[in-house]
């Protein structure tokens, strides 16, 4: 098969980690007889430097014309980088929010699991981590507070700022369906997170998710308040299979969940629209402090490429091959600095890419 | 001194744990020559049962007429209790939100610390918990999404729900001042949590907190995004002294922080207005599953009473006496079921109250 991939290397460690993913994808192409065409595009800080804006119409059009988007990371150090002197709508993050909306990427999938080989990095105590955990957070990505009307204005001489949290039943239904669909392929449990004891949007959320559940009699649905969810993730992460929630709650909880794995450098993510089209990126940030030093962990990005093969290209064997190669390399004791532990062999970013490619 | 205390025992384990706190307060009164007059009031589920509403004007008036409010917990099992068949504005939680607003309790103080004797209950691994941690979360309690306009309506045939997140600079300033004031009495560090890369309300938050910081040159101010904060709490809780944030973020992060102590049954809270008036309650919930069994841990409520002595009554020696009595009882190996471990002596709720009172 021939596939066109839009590649956004982005800022910080983005270029390094994406380069290693392309190395692995090229090996997959060679091995399985595919052809991947890459179109490199700017977004975020590098786009600000080149074009004065974090996201151009050309980048959006080129992404739309492709079969999937592979992304590194965007943004810089918020206290020192000149990008953060710009008005909010011209900063790197505005590019990220803009592309999510422009491509209709309403479903953000973040698998958070404890790799047995890396259990030592888990910040939780052994009684908890020994049970292992493997959950997928399904975050709504184009609604809620992130995309509601906002304004800052003087009200009776006092500066007042307002953001708006809106969800329609249609927006809730489509993400709920994605959550139940993916739960059917996993352990058939959905935990829907809301704050229904306070928010109208959460009450509508709970109602619609409950309706959607009727079409999935095999899936167990549970509702959990967001404050309790923040506790349960630490107390007993093994209880979760698929967690579905709105944009802001998903932002907070998915970061908490990725931290409890202890190896955020391992966690991929996919942001999908209604079709098979998606944008794939690592869960971690642009890590400007180690950028350009060939030290970053490329595995999250390589596993994001695997998700792309699986979800956008229906290349199941190929995705398995990448994931197995990653497992093999970990079992063989190879580590980047962030996941290094005693007795293991430390590799640079590019060496890790080589090792994984070799194992395809 | 003579003080009038409004007592809201509430639902679930509320009556048991408040009874033990009153036992301890009575011992304090005897020992230090004070007089505490209690006025028992209904709120939450018990008020619904008696009056049809979770909060009456009488309860509000009696609270206002008192020097402080001591509360247990309110609410029941949200899936089985008939209270949760009622419209949202008549449920137990509406009483809690109502009293916060009616009494102007805009500052919620939640100390989260790891008791050395209970470090074994901490869900984090020893490398992290061995450093210990002792932070105070200052949550804004009467603004933001909790109290903004909300509506659910049909828009072009589609049900749509909206909540509103509004903060004025005055609301931000007064909570920031509380945070810096308390930091001056602690380790002089404030971490202000927001989502300034997305929300207007967060950008105003950051601006005002930065302004307030100028009046506290000795205090170190740091800004942290809410998603990162959810990670840092798990990764390295020792880094935090005072964390100040808006209502919803505070709800989520304070629950996460209390869970990482591993002993939520130990954590008190205070909700204050601009004066010395406050409402004091344990951080945990009403635990309907163990209500009436004399099993609950009364320590969080007893420590809440100690906060009342300290913050509302300026009774420093008395507050110290209560806190020291709790430490002594823990050192002597006494535990309620929730914090029980091998080799310790298990006490019931009332026995724990007795033990602490004895040690005053
Ligand atoms: C950069 C920021 C706007 C973004 C978000 O909050 O969505 C990031 O934190 C993420 O989770 O992808
Ligand atoms: C019951 C609920 C409305 C309340 C809140 O979210 O404020 C509770 O969770 C709390 O934190 O006191």
From TrEMBL, chains A, B:
One of its GO terms (cellular component) is cytosol. Pathway: Amino-acid biosynthesis; L-leucine biosynthesis; L-leucine from 3-methyl-2-oxobutanoate: step 3/4. Belongs to the isocitrate and isopropylmalate dehydrogenases family. LeuB type 1 subfamily. Catalyzes the oxidation of 3-carboxy-2-hydroxy-4-methylpentanoate (3-isopropylmalate) to 3-carboxy-4-methyl-2-oxopentanoate. The product decarboxylates to 4-methyl-2 oxopentanoate. Mg(2+) binds at residues 227, 251, 255. It comes from the Bacteria. It is an enzyme of class 1 (oxidoreductase). PANTHER family: 3-ISOPROPYLMALATE DEHYDROGENASE. PROSITE patterns: IDH_IMDH. Residues 4-356 form the Isopropylmalate dehydrogenase-like domain. The keyword Oxidoreductase applies. The record marks 146, 195 as: Important for catalysis. It comes from [Eubacterium] siraeum DSM 15702. Keywords: Amino-acid biosynthesis, Branched-chain amino acid biosynthesis, Cytoplasm, Leucine biosynthesis, Magnesium, Manganese, Metal-binding, NAD, Oxidoreductase. Its cofactor is Mn(2+); Mg(2+). Substrate binds at residues 100, 110, 139, 227. This is 3-isopropylmalate dehydrogenase. NAD(+) binds at residues 285-297. Binds 1 Mg(2+) or Mn(2+) ion per subunit. One of its GO terms (molecular function) is magnesium ion binding.
